[in-house]
Amino acid sequence: MTSERLQRFGDCLALPLIAAPMFLVSGVELMVAACRSGVIGSFPTANCRSTEQLDAWLTEIEAQLLQHERQTGRKAAPLCPNLIVHRSNVRLEQDLAALLRHKPEIVITSVGSPSPVLKPLHDAGALVFADVASIRHAERAAEVGADGLVLLTAGAGGQTGWLNPFAFVRAVRAFYDGIIVLAGGISDGRALHAAEVLGCDLGYMGTKFVATRESMADDRYKRMLVESSADDILLTTAFTGLQTSMLKPSIIAAGLDPDDLPARGAIDIAEDIEVAARESRPKRWRDIWSGGHSTSGVTDVLGVDDLVARTIAEYREAGGR
């Protein structure tokens, strides 16, 4: 790895890359495959229907990665749960307790300040990365002691930012010496290397991991990503209350007009987590899918091992080490 900030992970990272947390897509199989391949695996704790299921997921992932390490003699890349810290998340305290029991090496906080969970996670030995979408939010997260900042830039899939990645990274690096993760538009190893040159330590790759055999995404979703491009991405608040990058073909297939979508009220994390846990999810979660500008780079559905191997080759060809 080129970044001294990542030395604590030794040689377990094949790439300076996080398989980004994806709502209703990232599951046990994808996490195990990513970490085995040398990529940090991240999933939203809200993907689990309950804290009990979260505990079961963490136990299963840990067991499979330990078996991998015993069989190969190689340490797997870290697992990195994504914890929603918004005040309306009624499961926050319980999910945090589950993470403290399992002691992941990294935790990402999103939709709020990491301040309430920093001390217990630090006491458990975890690095805490905070999702931020503005320079002011980055400043605040840095002030309270976040170990890393995930910069949500224009073009990220799902919940996204609005700032240009070049301007955002350079502005944050001017005052912050911690780990910076670039989220948005990283579709291959060349883009990942460019993020490092820009001043980042890690990159998020989400959309291409949706279209892997190990993801929980519907096969129709995976095929739609292969058939779509960045021109098919719509930025809207209609489905989550936050600026979100969505696939227009999925909106049309659900019988909606992308140019005339109904308004969505303010975000309600508690309600959305509960809705997502039900068997009969409303169409906005079940049939309408997100995608980033990197959709143009999705050309086929691969296994995670093949995707990572391809990305490593591109990264090395671009000059990455």
TrEMBL record:
Molecular function per GO: nitronate monooxygenase activity
A Pfam family reported for this protein in Swiss-Prot or TrEMBL: NMO
Keywords (A to Z) from UniProt: Flavoprotein, FMN, Membrane, Monooxygenase, Oxidoreductase, Transmembrane, Transmembrane helix
Taxonomic superkingdom: Bacteria
Acyltransferase is among the record's keywords: no
Keyword Secreted appears in the UniProt entry: no
Segments crossing the lipid bilayer: 12-34
InterPro entries: Aldolase_TIM, NMO
Homology family: Belongs to the nitronate monooxygenase family. NMO class I subfamily.
Protein name from the UniProt record: Nitronate monooxygenase
Species assigned in the record: Bradyrhizobium huanghuaihaiense
